[in-house]
Amino acid sequence: MEVLLCYIVIYLIEALILWLYCNDLFVARYNVRKTLVSLFALYSLLLVLSIFDNYLLNSSAFLFANFVFIYLFYHVNRIPALFHAGITTVAMFFGEVILFTFLPDFAHNFYQARADISLLLIYIFFSKLIYFSILYILSHFFCRQKIKNGIDTKGTLLLTFVPAISFFLILTLATVCHTTEISTSLSGMIAACTIMILLLNLLVWFFFNYTQKRNQAFIELQLSLQRENDTAEYYRMLSAQNEAKNILIHNIKEHLYTIAALARKNRQPKIIDYINNLTQTSGLQTSDTLQLCKNDTLNAILCRYKEECKKQNICFQTDIRNDCINFMAANDLSSLFCNLLDNAMEAATKVSGSFIEVNVIRQENTPYTVLSVQNSCPEDPFDSRGHLFSHKKNISRHGLGLISIRRTVNNYGGDMELYYDEKTGTFHAVIRIKNPA
Known about the structure:
- Helices cover about 65% and strands about 10% of the residues.
- It is of the alpha+beta class and about 425 residues long.
- The chain folds into 2 domains: about 1-225, no CATH class; about 290-435, Heat Shock Protein 90 (2-Layer Sandwich), CATH 3.30.565.
């Protein structure tokens, strides 16, 4: 019974090592719970097959189980999945070969060790620690080759000192158990220490990768905020340019009167200089003067997307009621509408005869403004967990736009509802934001 429990723990640790390796290199298809449950189910089958004590069968089953797990539960093609399944199998083989080659006494007494649970734990967990170290080094090597998700892996191999120190500790414990007569209780404590040393290595790997990914997500969010501020500044400049143009148009009569007066006096050089100066003003520079709403920043944003939709053959319609959105800051307007319309255009470009409709109205007898964006969408964009998925090439950036939208909505004490209408093939985003005044 003790040997069976030992092997259960061993296969559990092998499964966790594979999971950490895959998380380092690939993007998961499902949530952590579903992935781990499926992985443990696969390794439970491996545990059952190990009863036959057939090395060839166990090795083949290990390779196949790892391939199935990597291919079905991560965004990986079949050939790369088979390659990495082979890598993990070879790493497992090397872990056992290294242990039995450089420690011949262990190899000689391995099968006798099955009668001694503490020796069995030390021998096998020593090989798993080697297996863990090989996969750890390989995962960071592959990360450097692919520069996965933009995470800087420079210096991460310094963590190999952790398994190196663990090697020495487990080797010392194994030598003590193998050469010294010790009590049963002390033998059990040494075996427990061996398990905890290996678990400590797994925890170090897990928390290091977790911290790296959180730091990367924070950096991406800061870059997103910077881009939003730059975009807001752009629209402020564009609004100022449109205002200058409107002023110029308003004053065009005075300019024409001045030119006419100079012409009557035959002051041609003066006329030429006057016209040249006039054409260099910001008001006469090329830009879209379409008036979609009275808010200058929002109008500039909508004009830009209307032009983009025209190029993509997307019908773009707006209904923005007067003075219902003016309480929002320019950078918040940019963050909210640009992210919403970016997502809408991404979906609408995949549908022929598509449309995007933007409506902003004041909710009667309340301080709330209701903003709705509807757009054509080829398929339900929600996954089985109710999360939006994306077709962006850079998966690490997926979700930043939605985070920015939620942040803006929360800043104004609002709420948001996202849903997909299968009958009409349209995606809906309905947002309520509160006027702080």
